Model the fold of this input.
Amino acid sequence: RKVATLEPPYRAPLGTSGDPADIVIFGDSRAAEWPLQALQTHGRVVNAGIPGEVTASMVSRLSTDVIPWQADWVVLVAGINDLVAQSLIDEQERTARFAATVQAFDMMLETLVGEQVQVIIVLVTPPLQIDPMRWLAWGGGIEDSVTELNGHLVTQCARQPQLHCVDALEAFAATGPGWQPRVRRDALHYSAVGYEALNREVGLVLRGGA
Done:
């Protein structure tokens, strides 16, 4: 229940060391597993992803794991752990927790914009090809939550020129028919092919903002 109600676990800050970075990948396991080589043509890249992270704990990590890098760009990859956990609780509580997730995103974006950082938001993808038994545990409402959260993030991107949304599902579908097995490592995580597609889209944003 502690996980389902999104009480953020204690995370020792990753901190920073060495020279400033140009790009920081920030978020959960989808961020932590992000291969950096393709983005290194755009400058020095550091990874500040932590597996299992929820947005509530990411808010507090900004000051230790992101801002000190003085990066021009942050690639934000977050939200799926919140929404999976919220699928395990009753509707009334889920509504309140979803609102808290939206607020956490807004706080992170406001902070980064205030620091004059360009933010690439990788829109949340729902679980891909879910195992039937896991689907029973998570519940079908997760896709509606993903759609609602992404809609909010797209609206934020439209309002603020420092925010840029990358639609991961569009990037995956662009790899060709029958893309789901190719882009997934498991229901929640991406394969090398998936990350190649994301790196192409993120690279386009980076080149456009250069």
In short: The mean pLDDT is 89. Residues 91-114 form the longest helix (24 residues). Residues 109 and 119 are 8 Å apart (CA to CA).
